[in-house]
Amino acid sequence: MTRENIAVTGAEGFIAKNFITRLGELPAFGVQTLTRGSSAADIAATLANADALVHLAGVNRPQDPAEFMRSNRDATKALIEAVASSGRRMPIIYASSAKATDATLYGESKKAAEDALLAFAEKTGNPVYIIRLPNVFGKWCRPNYNSAIATFCHNIARGLLITVNDPNAPLTLIYIDDVLDAFVELLKTKPDASGFHKASPIYDTTVGEVASLIQSFRSDRDENLIEAVGTGLKRALYATYVASLPFDEFSYRIVSHADTRGVFSEILKTRGSGQFSYFMALPGVTRGGHYHHTKTEKFLIVHGEALFRFRHIVTGETHEIRTSSADPRVVETVPGWAHDVTNVGTDTLIALLWANEIFDRERSDTFAAKV
């Protein structure tokens, strides 16, 4: 397979670091990087072998306001001249900003860069794809620089205060992985027509809502809880928060209950999908001996051998299941049936357990009954 060489500017930036990593995962692409320190000769040498250019360089918070035009408009014009001098026809993807239409120095400088690229495309036929990005967030985003999301995640993960001046202030967001998907799709499809393209999904929210969600990630963790963080904005924010954790927060302790039978530990609790636990039992030990009216559980033996016994609390009908880690299967407890589990092996029994509800001592739905 012939690999395409992708030149990436702004290689030390947040978006570029993620994009370069993504390209490294795709065998169809190789990557060559350009940074603020790259010389004109470096740029020329890189473009001489490039099959496409992804222009991610720019500034949004310079100390000198004049740097807006120098780094966004003028640097882009110089890059265009280098592409023309290379004699190569290459698709150019430009990461612009949703603020390109704003009457600000930043917005005007991004619009000027867009105009220069589109004029180049019109003059030469070289394809140019522009994506106006809203606030981009995700792993490796710098706190107190790239976005409020990064700052919120960094501070909350460390127990530091955050500042929310207006909780109702609108906030439009896009997750870094979705931006990368849009870039890769353009590199693969290479549309003939130049112009504006979109990355999606876009999340319209508020500063207060985002701050509250990120704060809930920390407070839930302190209580061994987890929200539904598998889809959409919550998934993206949660990944960003976890990526901002300091080293000493990479692990945390869980609640364990030990007695002569072994150990029972709560792994994780959810508000809507029950809780996960595990228990250990020494050889010959029996755990359980109760029934539930509504609660259900799923057991998986991950080490050792177990005998599950069941008795219908009204009819007295019985049932047994023998299982072990050598034959992985889930054993489910059934409402109205008393049940217990005995370690019938010679080694410590270890079992994973899921219950469809969080244990509530006031309404435990657990009633002692011999099997």
What does this structure look like?
- The structure is a single chain.
- This protein is of the alpha/beta class.
- The chain has two domains: 208 residues, 3-Layer(aba) Sandwich (Rossmann fold); 113 residues, Jelly Rolls.
- It is 30% helix and 30% strand.
- The strands form four sheets. Strands 10, 11, 12, 13, 15, 18 and 20 form a seven-stranded mixed sheet that branches. A six-stranded parallel sheet has the order 2-1-3-4-5-8, with helices on both faces. A five-stranded antiparallel sheet has the order 17-16-19-14-21, with no helix packed on it.
- The radius of gyration is 29 Å and the shape is elongated.
- The mean pLDDT is 96.
Q: Short description, anyone?
A:
By secondary structure, the protein is α/β, with parallel strands linked by helices. It is built from 8 helices and 21 strands. Strands 10, 11, 12, 13, 15, 18 and 20 form a 7-stranded mixed beta sheet that branches.
Observed structural traits:
2 domains, alpha/beta, 30% strand, elongated, 8 helices, Rossmann fold, 371 residues, Jelly Rolls, six-stranded parallel β-sheet
CATH class of the largest domain: Alpha Beta
Residue-averaged pLDDT: 96
- CATH topology term of the largest domain: Rossmann fold
Going by helix content, strand content and strand pairing, the class is: alpha/beta
Give unreliable regions as ranges.
none
By DSSP (H or I, 4+ residues per run), the number of helices equals 8
As for the number of domains, it is: 2
Strand tally is 21
Bulk shape: elongated
CATH superfamily membership of the largest domain = NAD(P)-binding Rossmann-like Domain
Q: In percent, how much strand structure appears in the residues? A: 25-35%
H/E series: EHEHEHEHEEHEHEEHEHEEEEEEEEEEE
Oligomer kind: single chain
Helical fraction: 25-40%
Q: What would you report as the Rg, rounded to the nearest angstrom? A: 29 Å
* Straight-line distance between termini: 64 Å
Q: What CATH architecture of the largest domain would you give?
A: 3-Layer(aba) Sandwich
The largest sheet is: 7 strands, mixed
